[in-house]
Every structure is written in C-alpha cells, then in structure tokens.
Write a structure and sequence with these properties.
This protein has helices at 8-18, 23-33, 36-53, 58-65, 69-81, 85-95. It is mainly α. Helix 3 (36-53) crosses helix 5 (69-81). The longest helix has 18 residues, at 36-53.
C-alpha cells in the first residue's frame, strides 16, 4: 500500500466504491464524482495497462487509444514497479 495516498478520506472513497453493485451504479457514481476528462483519463490508463500486459508495442497503443507516449511510459512504470494491482484486476476479470 502506498502510504502517500493513505488517509481517512481515501478510505471513505474506496469503501463507497466497494458498495456499488452494478455497472449502472458505477456510471452514476463516477459521473457525479469525476469530470468527463478525469473518467476518460482513468479508463484510458486502464486500457493502456491491459495492452501493455498483452505485449502490445507503444505505436499500436498510441494508435488505438490516443494516449501519449508519456502516459504509456507512466503506466508501464506502474506495471513494472507498482503494487501489481493491474495484474490482480486483469486476472480476476479473465476468471469471471
């Protein structure tokens, strides 16, 4: 866990997210919580992470997602040196 983000407020946010039950509830909650650009940026980073995990090259990712090479590099750094949360989520999504 990253102690830089650990706080009561972040705990409250994550607890709220864990109480969402459907995709429609997620859409409603995140539409209220985030700007359109924030939501698009988060979803783009997730798609980039999946593509990198699948062995896709930067040029394919840029073409497919429109993500900058800087964004792709940041996501790649998270995949290599982060908390392995992308792998956790992707594995769970594949097994469901």
């Amino acid at each position: 866990m990253n102690s830089k983000i650990k706080s009561k407020e972040v705990d409250f946010l994550f607890d709220a997210i864990l109480h969402l039950e459907t995709e429609e509830e997620c859409y409603q909650f995140f539409e209220d919580l985030c700007t359109v650009n924030e939501l698009k940026a988060m979803s783009q980073r997730l798609v980039v992470a999946k593509m990198l995990s699948d062995g896709r090259v930067y040029s394919d990712i840029v073409e497919s997602t429109g993500a900058s090479t800087a964004t792709i590099s940041r996501v790649k750094r998270s995949l290599e040196y982060g908390c392995d949360s992308y792998s956790l989520v992707f594995d769970r999504m594949e097994n469901k």
